[in-house]
């Protein structure tokens, strides 16, 4: 019986490898097959092969997170695709503890500790390249919960033109990253692609002539030629301690994974003023509110006006499925949202996705960024120096031609890339 099961597993692995190497099989075909595949294998294979296959499939589908949520009847497995969670599989109660223990074991966690939250990490070779996974566990009333964050493929989204910026925004960011000192900030909520944008900026200036250092929590993608540091709060080696140490090591460019507190903000701003180029991220709503947040950190306005070269606010929008879509004529409310003359509505064709197996019945497949790029010129610096609010600086930048997040999203709707519903969901 065991030999028969092993034979089935081997056959399944051969099928997996063939799918992985066959370019004729589209990603959506693998999406449709995932639920059936895992369900059919759960009774044939042990926990270890099932976990390995789950991780491999999640990477193939472009998932960003895997959720294992305990319920009275067992464990619900969900994948986050294009920012939305999808139910994939339900594990029976007697099978769930083995799955959780296996993931905790390969993540370097204490498998006997079930009462407290733990953080771990899986480093493995997936799809012929190193792909890391950040793992977090925590107790719930029905048992332990696990969330795995899948680190991005370091070969994707390495240049600014892949992110979704339009030509004028790319020009502004390129000008900022060529400045040898000062700060470039990527801002937005959690999961808006800030780190990806920062990595793209870093790739653009990566050269043997410069000393580039990153301070991250965790290191999300490996970059050749860059010294990458991972902080460890367990030994009190945080952003502040790492940043102070790096500044004594003759850096040309420093990437700080995230500015979370006033002390990190002060050190980063001083570094930008002292001749180092600083790239970082911040949780802020838009470009103007970023300036207000730095004031909350008690950064003197003189330092702020001199240090910041560029602020990039961003969001991620789901793209309309390329294989299952339809055109339609906008109604009056849609015209109002998009700034279309209602008299010309009959001459305007918009696109929306049709829910189907190809797109997990959402009508969307993949995501793109929308951006608001504030290049801080002399006029804006004077406004910051005079103590004006972030909103006032924002309005002047708009008058000078800065495209807002909403305007950038509207442009993508009119271009047939995304929908009005996505514009409303993400930017309003």
From TrEMBL:
Listed PROSITE patterns: T2SP_E
Alphabetical list of SUPFAM superfamilies matching this protein: P-loop containing nucleoside triphosphate hydrolases
Protein name: Type II secretion system protein E
Organismal lineage: Bacteria, Pseudomonadati, Planctomycetota, Planctomycetia, Planctomycetales
Xref: Pfam families: T2SSE
Family: Belongs to the GSP E family.
GO MF term set: ATP binding; ATP hydrolysis activity
Origin superkingdom: Bacteria
Annotated region (Disordered), positions in chain: 1-29
A GO CC annotation given for this chain: plasma membrane
Keyword Membrane assigned: no
Gene that encodes the chain: epsE_1
Residue ranges, compositional bias (Polar residues): 7-21
């Amino acid at each position: 019986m065991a030999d028969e099961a092993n034979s089935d597993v081997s056959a399944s692995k051969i099928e997996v490898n063939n799918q992985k190497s066959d370019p004729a099989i589209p990603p959506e075909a693998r999406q449709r097959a995932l639920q059936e595949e895992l369900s059919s294998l759960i009774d044939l294979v042990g926990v270890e092969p099932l976990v390995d296959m789950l991780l491999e499939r999640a990477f193939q589908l472009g998932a960003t997170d895997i959720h294992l949520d305990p319920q009275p009847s067992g464990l619900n497995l969900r994948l986050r695709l294009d920012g939305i969670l999808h139910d994939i599989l339900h594990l029976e109660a007697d099978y769930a503890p083995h799955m959780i223990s296996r993931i905790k074991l390969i993540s370097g966690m204490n498998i006997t500790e079930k009462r407290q939250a733990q953080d771990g990490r899986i480093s493995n070779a997936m799809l012929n390249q190193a792909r890391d996974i950040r793992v977090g566990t925590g107790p719930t009333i029905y048992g332990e919960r696990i969330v795995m964050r899948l680190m991005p493929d370091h070969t994707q989204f390495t240049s600014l033109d892949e992110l979704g910026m339009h030509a004028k925004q790319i020009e502004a960011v390129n000008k900022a990253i060529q400045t040898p000192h000062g700060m470039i900030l990527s801002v937005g909520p959690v999961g808006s692609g800030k780190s990806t944008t920062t990595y793209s900026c870093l790739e653009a200036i990566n050269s043997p002539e410069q000393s580039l250092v990153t301070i991250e929590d965790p290191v999300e993608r490996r970059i050749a030629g860059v010294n990458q540091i991972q902080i460890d709060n367990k030994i009190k080696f945080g952003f502040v301690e790492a940043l102070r140490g790096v500044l004594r090591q003759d850096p040309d460019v420093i990437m700080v994974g995230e500015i979370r507190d006033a002390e990190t903000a002060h050190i980063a701003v001083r570094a930008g003023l002292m001749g180092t180029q600083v790239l970082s991220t911040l949780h802020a709503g838009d470009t103007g509110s970023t300036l207000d947040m730095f004031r909350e950190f008690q950064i003197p306005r003189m330092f702020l006006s001199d240090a910041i070269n560029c602020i990039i606010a961003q969001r991620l929008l789901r793209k309309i499925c390329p294989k299952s879509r339809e055109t339609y004529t906008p109604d009056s409310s849609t015209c109002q949202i998009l700034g279309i003359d209602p008299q010309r509505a009959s001459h305007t064709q918009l696109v929306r996705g049709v829910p189907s197996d190809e797109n997990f019945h959402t009508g969307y497949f993949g995501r793109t960024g929308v951006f608001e790029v504030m290049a801080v010129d002399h006029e804006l610096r004077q406004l910051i120096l005079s103590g004006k609010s972030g909103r006032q600086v924002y309005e002047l930048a708009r008058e000078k031609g800065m495209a807002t997040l909403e305007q950038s999203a509207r442009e993508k709707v009119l271009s047939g890339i995304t929908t009005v519903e996505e514009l409303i969901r993400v930017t309003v």
